[in-house]
């Protein structure tokens, strides 16, 4: 009876349901930022194609697999604008059929914006969103799906900015390539003579 109760409870909150489309995931899961487990299938320019692995019970697992589809969810790394080098890095770092956890932050049609975590050893996990920024392989962007003024938004956004700052300080990735040119550009834009020329150009544009 106890086991049957646990199974019924799990079903009632869809813990044993395998999601094969972002639209199948209950709104409550998105709002509560639930973590789901999955297996990597493909890395694409649009995001990670992940097969959802729901909670299973040993005596029901074979029956569950029999009726479950192999369709995948499209998971996007929330708050990160990836560079082409990031795609290469992901393909090198992630193993085929890599197991991962993805925390739901938002949903845009068929795309899930998530924090993605992978295990590194038994007791250590890495957040891919932060790691890509630490490697200088992306830029921090708005976290889609979360309210801009919510505490969670700013908590996660701060973590991503700190990761990006580490890459900037170490001149890694895009910051190594752009640091000199960005500094040169800032110096030119802040030059008083250049600013006067811009003001003159704007004045002439209005007059002509």
UniProtKB/TrEMBL annotation:
Keywords: Acetylation, Membrane, Transmembrane, Transmembrane helix. It comes from the Eukaryota. Its main location: membrane. GO terms for cellular component: extracellular space; membrane. InterPro entries: C3orf33-like, SNase_OB-fold_sf. The keyword Transmembrane applies. The keyword Zinc does not apply. It is found in: Membrane. It is a single-pass membrane protein. This is Chromosome 3 open reading frame 33.
